[in-house]
Amino acid sequence: MSSKKQLHLTAFMRPVSLHTGAWRYPGSYPDANFNLKHLMSFIQALEAAKFDAFFMADHLAVLNMPVEALKRSHTVTSFEPFTLLSALSQVTSRIGLAATASTTYDEPYHIARRFASLDHLSDGRAAWNIVTTGNPESSKNFGLDEHVQHSERYKRAREFYDVVTGLWDSFADDAFVRDAETGVYVDPEKIHTLNHKGDDLKVKGPLNIARPVQGWPVIVQAGQSEPGRQLAAETAEAVFCSPKDIDAGQALYADIKGRAKAAGRNPEHIKILPAAMILVADTVEEAQQKRLKLDSLVHYDSAISSLSISLGTDASKFDPDGSLPSEDELPATNASHTSRASVIALAKSEGLTVRQLAGRYGGYAGLAFVGTAESIADEMERWLDADAADGFTVTFPFLPEGLEAVTQKLVPELQRRGVFRTEYEGSTLREHLGLPRPVNRFFENAEHAQNGELKTVTNGNVKSANNAKRKLKSEGSIQESRRSSRRRV
Amino acid sequence: MSSKKQLHLTAFMRPVSLHTGAWRYPGSYPDANFNLKHLMSFIQALEAAKFDAFFMADHLAVLNMPVEALKRSHTVTSFEPFTLLSALSQVTSRIGLAATASTTYDEPYHIARRFASLDHLSDGRAAWNIVTTGNPESSKNFGLDEHVQHSERYKRAREFYDVVTGLWDSFADDAFVRDAETGVYVDPEKIHTLNHKGDDLKVKGPLNIARPVQGWPVIVQAGQSEPGRQLAAETAEAVFCSPKDIDAGQALYADIKGRAKAAGRNPEHIKILPAAMILVADTVEEAQQKRLKLDSLVHYDSAISSLSISLGTDASKFDPDGSLPSEDELPATNASHTSRASVIALAKSEGLTVRQLAGRYGGYAGLAFVGTAESIADEMERWLDADAADGFTVTFPFLPEGLEAVTQKLVPELQRRGVFRTEYEGSTLREHLGLPRPVNRFFENAEHAQNGELKTVTNGNVKSANNAKRKLKSEGSIQESRRSSRRRV
User: What start and end residues bound the annotated signal peptide (chains A, B) (predicted)?
Assistant: First the structure.
């Protein structure tokens, strides 16, 4: 392995792409939302390129949009992440599988169980993207009239994490004896009943699935708000964030690593992976042209409303093919001046018309690297060297072409420079990311596992684990040991 | 196809088998609870034998057992069904995939979405086994102190079914236009917002996934209580039941089909599939010997407590290798006399010792067909001809041997007799079971779809659908049409 700091790459996917215009791009698969074959080809290409993980974005609702935008949106449907990633686990063998799951609208027992199951099915490749679900429409699909408040969501998320990781630790790694001779299947001393009772959650346990292959699936977190950063610092092992440029990236990197250190964690064990749309072509100009073409495929009716929001004024009154009026000519606004200023700056720096600007804001307005393999590799190395990133959460402008350009042009360039692996060295996602296997809080010696060793120190001689441990107790009933088919369901 | 009434066969699976002693049986895979390879080989063998479906049993807790039983139980862990079946969907192409999901401890939006996703991933092979979760331990893993009452569970289940099926109907089958030229992806007129507000559930919709391939995944139901039978009659398309013999099977069959008819349904569209453990060998005596061996592998410590429950008295006081005391000699009991009487009858008819009886009750005491391919095929035909069954929910005594005996000995015999398919005729589970594709209540003409046609009658000229329909409305906000990576998670 190269002695250079290594880049990590995850692919942040929506089936048709994150960009609103992508389904109209030549060669795209507009039916990828419910056509598994396309997604299989994407993940296999990413695995061949040695990506760390395939990351499935998710929503718990059809987003609230005006009909004009809705009818043009390929984001209206998608596969559900657990079912999708479980299916994809069978056509891949190394790449990590990150699913988004909500702490606000789901139950920790279900979440713990599904991720543990995915981790077993994939031989240790699962990751949990903890989200608190920012989209207010979701609440209405789960019995509520109003969205749960931001601070409440983050408070519950923190407790939810404790419960889920506690459930994952229900069984010691060596709990299963399976001695056919003596008839002992499992050692009851190596099963822990959580008995959690907190402010928001009450969960008894134990989980009814063996400890995940990775100990715990990798924890991913995305929030950039104050409570979001703190949650990331305390819990996340990979952070998916959206700084607008390298300076913002550097600040965020330092902030989250600093918070992690303050929380008593090793900052090396939290990887900061800014999201970036990557558009690679053979020349910078060609890449820029492709981007303009892509943005032009966002229908003007929905694009202009996105621009209007960013400007804080109705942009449909401007000449689509003219340039943006100057700041003095724009009507006054109560909306964010930072947002307006960045629109104006962008229009100026790239010389965009109102229509092009609208396409940008209606399509994808986040951090983007648009250029050649060399120019983008330079940019990525700059971020790496500036401690602004440990790698990137890559989004593709359009599929499959945009993905193929990354895997066939950019990745070989990164490999040539010695900053990205040419082969997977381990088999689990933790190993790809250089993360230790978490200790089992109930059955392992914390000092022992700090350096990521896999061996279990069993209970008995470990004070802290011993104190925390409560044994699974018989509850006096033998009812459930009867076998009847009805009880099996 | 033969003109004889056709048998349907589904496999009711726990990874290691349903029988408590099975993990100790020679050749078994005691680690199948988290070793996918074994389950892949099982489902592939079942598909080669043209089984209708692979049915995954489930629990939402580690069952409450005394430590003596717990430590001997391979049921303590299992894969989670959605993740498991999604993975298995990729190594099979025809066999149905039935997952158990609880209406008591889950949310209809999640359930609707996961089954729709599984149905898309598997090209129309999903089935939902609706359960209300009978195991009281589960409640404690979902924030409750007490188990939800039986009648409340069934009331919620009925409403839950209405919501889930309503969410599956969110999109007309032809809602997706995907016209790259005009930029129209979906027709908003063909999206329905459910706006359900009932006693137990409030769910807005629409679901964020296209209508399942099968319209709705097949509905399976297992309850045999009064409300369980009624729920089955109103909703189920396949009923998994546990009659103790052919007479009980006939009565249950007539009762559920009668209730379905009274509820306005076509009784042909509800298949009654009694559960039976099937043990096939080359001679009846060999099969019986295998069963005795299997029962003997249930450890006496846990077996005897099962027998004690069935007898309503402590059976550990009897001589394990003697015969059961006569009814007069047994202490009086407040427990079920029916249960005691059936134990006594069994001991007599098979001449079992106390130890053998305990193994039976500790292992699997439900309906079993133990014999040769011919004797079991005879028995199955008897049930079919007596209108006691439309097929069977098969459980295997031990794996893989017990499964191989069924697929290699019994199935060819059934095929030779012309009562079981030699090839799949359709591609979806509905087609295997001879069930129609449900009409979309919001977008299709009910009369049209009654005979199972797949074509959609679009809205506009259909009065009933039109009346029920409420269009997705814009809610005035264009916020969500902005593209920012944070909103994607």
Answer: none
